[in-house]
Amino acid sequence: MSSAVELAQVWRGEVLESVHHGHAVICDSSGGIVEAWGDPDLVMLPRSSCKMIQALPLVESGAGLTDSQLALACASHSGASLHTGMAGAWLEEIGLGEPDLRCGSHMPKDEEAHHRLIRAGAEPCQLHNNCSGKHVGFLMLNQRLKGDADYVEPDHPVQLAVRAAFEEVTGAESPGYGIDGCSAPNFATTLAGLGRAMAFFANAHRASGARAGAAARLVAAMARHPVLVAGEGRACTDLMRAMEGRVAIKTGAEAVYVAILPEAGLGVALKVMDGATRAAECAIAAILIRLGVLSAEHPAVEKYWNAPLVNCRGRRAAWIRPGTGLA
Amino acid sequence: MSSAVELAQVWRGEVLESVHHGHAVICDSSGGIVEAWGDPDLVMLPRSSCKMIQALPLVESGAGLTDSQLALACASHSGASLHTGMAGAWLEEIGLGEPDLRCGSHMPKDEEAHHRLIRAGAEPCQLHNNCSGKHVGFLMLNQRLKGDADYVEPDHPVQLAVRAAFEEVTGAESPGYGIDGCSAPNFATTLAGLGRAMAFFANAHRASGARAGAAARLVAAMARHPVLVAGEGRACTDLMRAMEGRVAIKTGAEAVYVAILPEAGLGVALKVMDGATRAAECAIAAILIRLGVLSAEHPAVEKYWNAPLVNCRGRRAAWIRPGTGLA
């Protein structure tokens, strides 16, 4: 087992104020490791970075889905009206409503939606949950599997189907699970397993079979709809736009990031051990630049890679930079 | 130089999801190290954890100040009406106004104040800045030092006085500085230097001299007014209340925490290297429990030490616990 390597640094003036350590892996079409930083055998929870895996059984079920719905199923969205409106319409389309969701609610990240709720003195509903698209997808799959209403239970047919797909694309039995923020089980894997799964998605457009077909559709939907996968001003959206549809990327809570590179046939997975999103964003940007799919000069990149941290008077007081472990 | 030790762990189900490493030190009345975890020689920025040091020149200047004003000068407050009202009244008392501040503004942490601004379609003012009490103190000191208006410049008489006090209580020349979120310079020291300074504050009530007298007043003011130092629901406030005025504690950005224990004459300083506040709160609680000044059974403690992370449906899905390095 290798130690975590330094993935990001925070400098304030002349002082190295904070550092972030973690692990990263790049896998190719064979599922083998092309490059690794730290420990590829780290057992970890992918959290929301594996939503495209969780959507596989739904797409394979043959349900009629638009690209926008597929992107929303893979999203950790900001809860902007665009997202909640689309999730609500999709629910209605399948004859269900907000109370059928089991994701719970939280205040949306989208500032306009957040302020609107506060001004109205209203509470957020389950459509605002960043995972609501994934959950509408679970409900739609459940209509085909005819399971009971509690589709987030780990032994429910929906979650058994997700687990089977997860274990197939990661290439190993899951050693356990945690309950996610949205109450769905989140299956554990190794970092190499998650990288292998992303390489499967990256090579799906060249492969045959129902699973590969579903995977290729999901990658294309994510890459075509960056704003549905996250939201305005968010790293997934900004960086996917900067890569102009050539790469799909996805963040997960506690500083997980994955990237799917269909042209190169590569999958990337990384985990910052302390759970800091700022470091995961910086590290994935650095790796995408290194892989030649993201331009360091693109104006969107500066927010994440060598990003200034601006203080209360607009002064650039600190910087977050890739760590020595990525050099 | 010793490596950082594990100060906190985050568990989700059966998986160790995230870990936080850092350094901690306990110093006694001699300024010597009683106990250390990791590297006491780490060069670091104390950020807001050193506000009681930054207030020393003001108190020593003989300015007439209430205990509440002293507590507010040491605060990273939530911007509740209690805090902004008191900072505004203090400014008026010295014949100045909000535009004289140089801290800039940010949305208050206090939910009621935050929602009130949004409902009014209003922007926060500089009084909402968590550092506004410190800045009113700087302005008051500046009236005595007759410096120009830009009291946050590193070579301004106010900041030179702060630097001299900082170097005396930490026991060493500062090797540099960073610009803080509030635009004031934040002087660097070693972790042992910060611990030594906290031990100076802890023993000030038994010492003689103007500086010791000022330090003892500041410690007493912080311990007597926990809600002014932070705000409802915040760790500094909750834990100081739980210790019933026997200990003063203070957080700083990027996961710094200090504690001042006047009865034992001990000073504590810690830094979590990744800057995660959740880990700094967990680690300081663990150290205070170990030192016998905080009861592990106190209801306020569970929020920080072995704290459950509750998901969107109220389920305890994860836990943050002290790391193996603190065992």
TrEMBL record, chains A, B:
Q: Name one Pfam family in it.
A: Asparaginase_II
The family database entries (InterPro entries) matched by this protein are listed as:
Asparaginase_II
Provide the protein name. Answer: L-asparaginase, thermolabile family protein
